[in-house]
Amino acid sequence: MKINQSQNKLNFQNVSLLSKPLGMFYNSNATIPTLIIESGVTSGRAYSAYKKSGKIEASERIVEQGTSAIVWLWGVQMLQKLGEAIGKKILKRDDFDFDLGFDYLRNPLENLDKKALKFKTANLLLSTVIATLFIGFGLPKINHLITRNKLKKQKQNSNEITVNNQKNITFNEFKNKTQNISFTSCLYNFANVLENNSTVRLLATDTGVIGGRFLNARSKSERVENPFRDISSIYFYLFSTKHTVKLLNKLFSNTDIDPKVLSKTVEILKKRLEKSNLTDSHNFLNKVLGRANIDDLRKVDELFKGRKSITLDEFKEVFSNFDIKADLMSKLQPELAGKQVLSKIQAQDIVKSGWISEPKFLHNVMDSVTKGAYKQKNRFISAKKVEKIRQSIEEFIIQVEERAKKKDCVIDSNFVEKIAKNNIRKNFVFYALGTAISIYALGFLIPKIQYKIRRKLTNSDEFVGIKESNK
Description:
Elements: H1 5-15, H2 19-23, H3 32-53, H4 55-91, H5 114-157, H6 183-196, H7 198-215, H8 220-238, H9 240-251, H10 259-275, H11 281-289, H12 294-303, E1 309-311, H13 312-318, H14 323-330, E2 341-343, H15 344-350, H16 359-370, H17 383-407, H18 413-458, H19 464-469
Antiparallel strand pairs: 1-2
C-alpha cells in the first residue's frame, strides 16, 4: 500500500508534542532544565529548613538558592554583554559574535584580531569570576545580615520571643597548522565552553562558591555543613540526570538521540523504504548503514594513522573515484587553515554506500541541530558532538532492526515511525525521572544528611544564625 509521505511526516511531528520539551535536554546552553531543577531544589531546601528550624532558616535558604540560581543562569551572560559594550568602545569593534573554541575540524579563531580574541576571553573569565565572588563571598554576608536584622526586629516586636522557642534552622592536531597554541589558546576553549554550556558555567561558579561559603561560615559546624552540601550537590546538578538516562536507555534497549536528529533520520528512512523492497532485517542494515570494501577501509586507516583529520586533497589522492561525495562531505565544516578537511568517520562514510552516510542527509541533520551554524566560520561545533550525533543515528538504526527481528516483522515506514515515537516517549520519561531524582537528592536527601551532620557536631538542631544573634 502506498503511504502518503506528507501526512506521515505531519503525524510524526505531532506525536511528538514531546519532541520540543525533550529537545531542551540535548541543548547544552538551555537554561530551562536547570531552572526546573533549581526551582525544585529551592522549594525542597526551604521546606526542609522550615521543618527543622522555622521561617528564619527557610528564608535564608530561599535567598541563598534563589539568588544563586539567577546569577548562575544569567549573571555571567549579563556581565559578558556589559563587558562587550565596553570592549566595543575601547577596541572600536562592532562585533564579538564569534565562538572561541577549536579542534581538529573547526577553528573560528583563524584570521581574527588577536586583541579581540584576548578581550573576549578575558571578558568571559572575568564575568565568571565576578559572579563567583558575589555568590561565594557577597551573598553569604548579605544573607547573614538579613537574618540578623529579622531576628533583631522579632525581639523588638515581642518580649516573649526567646531563642529557645525557635526550632532549629535549618585542539591538538592543528596547533601547527593555524597558530601556535599556548596556555592563552587553551583559555579560548575554556571561555567558549563557559559561554555555550550552562552546565560548565554552574560548575565553574560552584568551585569558587564552595570556598567562599566555607570562609564565610558562622561556626565550625557550618564550615562542615556547607562544603558537604555544595560538593555533594555538584553531581546531582550536573551529571546525575544524564547518568540516569544512560542507564535506563541501556536497560530498555532504547537510543538516546536528539529529537531533531531522529526526525531527519525517520524522514530519510520513510522516503527510501517506500522505494525499496526490503524483505528482511539483514537487508535493511546493509542498505541503511552501508557496506564498504575492506581494502578501502584499510586505506582509510592508513590515511589517518597518527592523525585525527586529513585534507580533502590527501583523501582524493588515494580515492579519486569518490571525488563528488568527498567534496560534499568536506563541506560539513568550514575550511581549516585554508583547506577543506575530513574526519575519519567522514572518510569512512564516503567509501560506504549506506543511506545515512550520504552527505546530503548529514547536512540536513547538522542544519537542523545547529540551525545552520555548522557551516559558519565564526561558530564552533565540536567534532566530539558531531561524532556523537552520527553514533546516535547508527544506534537508532540498529534498534529498529533488533525490534523487527524480535517481532518477526517487515521493516516499513509505519514500523519505523512507531519505533521513533516510542523512543521519544521513553526518553521524555527517562529525562523527567532523572530530573526528579536530582531534585529529590538536592532538595531533600542532601539537606537531611546535612542536618544529621549538624546534630552530630553540635548535639543540637539549632540554626547557627539564631545562636549568633544571641551572642
